[in-house]
Design a protein that fits this description.
Helix content is about 20%, strand content about 35%. The chain has about 300 residues and is an alpha+beta fold. It is flat and about 70 Å long.
Length: about 300
């Protein structure tokens, strides 16, 4: 998939009112006609960087307020990608083509930073096995009560649902000391993917994340061999949240009508990727391995 980025004429500047002041915004906004991604950019584009489909001009007065800048370069990301792909004989050639690698692009992805407090009481049932194969229902159980009052600050929540949360969690690790106010003059060719989920959904995801973490902490501190959540009376208080934009290098490779994503954290270089095994490449590699084994066996027989 090629990036298909072209350059066009700049639209007239417009202004956005914020809580503090008026910001001049000369950036363009586009919407992908297929995947629906909303993209802010300094220069005109003709294709969606995410899926390669055509884009149309869209209206959006949303203005990114804070970002974490890039520390890694595009060359760093390409080198990392090549390291994992080029010398793997089972990866399809489509992933290794120069045009594919050159279609990697830089983007700021939306993240919500949430401050959440959870408090209340949780009870677990705990027991120890006396015989192999025993179930919790067959054993004398003890009810354990725990009072909870946890503060979770700066909980990262993905606001770009076209990328799976679990996949992104392996990349999302940023130093918030580098967070600063957005200045479009700092942008080069980076795109900005606008957030696509509302506050209620953000709160729902943040609440689920912190509750699961709190229950894991409690469960890990129970000394019984068998443990089961009995009652959860925790109360959630969503104290505050704000949207920031974090730097990512992205490559979305289309292969047999499916997309395989590579992401690299633009600040610290953490990466995650989805790959597939090529049938043709696997057959060729198997033939080569078979020939080498056959040749080695022949030489050993001939020499000894």
């Amino acid at each position: 998939m090629n990036d298909g980025i072209g350059f066009g004429e700049r639209n007239d500047d417009f202004f956005i009112e914020t809580e503090n002041n008026t910001i001049k915004d000369s950036m363009l906004c586009f919407r992908c006609t297929v995947c629906g991604t909303m993209i802010k950019t300094k220069d005109s584009i003709i294709k969606c960087p995410f899926c390669g489909s055509a884009v149309e001009i869209a209206d959006s007065l949303y203005f990114p307020e804070q970002i974490i800048p890039f520390s890694k370069t595009l060359d760093d990301a390409k080198k990392d990608y090549k390291k994992h792909v080029l010398f793997n004989p089972l990866i399809p050639f489509s992933f290794k083509k120069k045009s594919t690698i050159n279609s990697m692009f830089s983007v700021f992805l939306p993240v919500s930073l949430n401050n959440v407090n959870i408090s209340g009481e949780v009870s677990f049932l705990g027991a120890n096995k006396t015989d192999k194969g025993q179930k919790l229902s067959m054993i004398e159980k003890h009810e354990l009560f725990y009072t909870v009052n946890f503060d979770y600050n700066n909980v990262f929540i993905n606001c770009f649902p076209k990328i799976d949360d679990i996949f992104l969690n392996k990349v999302y690790s940023y130093n918030l000391n580098n967070l600063h106010d957005f200045d479009e003059n700092e942008l080069n060719k980076e795109n900005i993917f606008l957030g696509e989920i509302d506050n209620d959904k953000i709160n729902e995801k943040a609440n689920k994340k912190v509750i699961n973490h709190a229950l894991i902490i409690i469960r890990d501190n129970i000394n019984y061999g068998l443990k089961k959540l009995n009652k959860n009376s925790m109360i959630i208080n969503n104290k505050s949240s704000k949207i920031i934009y974090v730097p990512v290098y992205m490559l979305n490779v289309k292969y047999k009508n499916k997309f395989y994503l590579y992401l690299m954290n633009g600040e610290n270089g953490k990466y995650n990727m989805k790959l597939t095994i090529g049938i043709f490449e696997t057959i060729i590699f198997s033939i080569i391995v078979f020939c080498l084994i056959f040749l080695l066996a022949f030489l050993l027989t001939y020499l000894f």
